Amino acid sequence: MRIAERRLRQVLAAALRLRCPRCRVGALFRGAFSMNARCPVCGLIIEREQGYFVGAMYVNYAVTVGLACSGFLLLDHYATIPLRRQLLLWGTFAAAFPVLFFRHARSLWLAIDHIFNPPAPAAVRKAPDGKPKPRS
Description:
The protein is mainly alpha-helical. The chain has one domain (3-122). It has helices spanning 3-16, 54-78, 83-116; strands spanning 124-126, 132-134. Strands 1-2 form a two-stranded antiparallel sheet. A hairpin with a 5-residue loop joins strand 1 (124-126) and strand 2 (132-134). The two termini are 37 Å apart.
């Protein structure tokens, strides 16, 4: 396996585990919907600019629509569920899934951005406690 493919897999695996795309160790979220400003391990700035995570909404929308449409078509083909019941089922899914997938959509967006537009390496200095800290 080539180095680029291995790195891509590692970054996407870290995204699915909600970890930093650079160090693959630090947690991205500190609460259900609140993200850390920086990676607690390597200091990567998570939100680079205002509106940075608009792309995550596109990821969330694409996954939701893909699952809802394919689920509808598969269920329509293999089951005899009335159309009204299917629309109720997939409408409820399309309303609830984006909320549940919110954290992973942001994590995947951050990973995609990290792969195609990696941040410049930040200078790291030692803090008094001996741990590396990113330079402000």
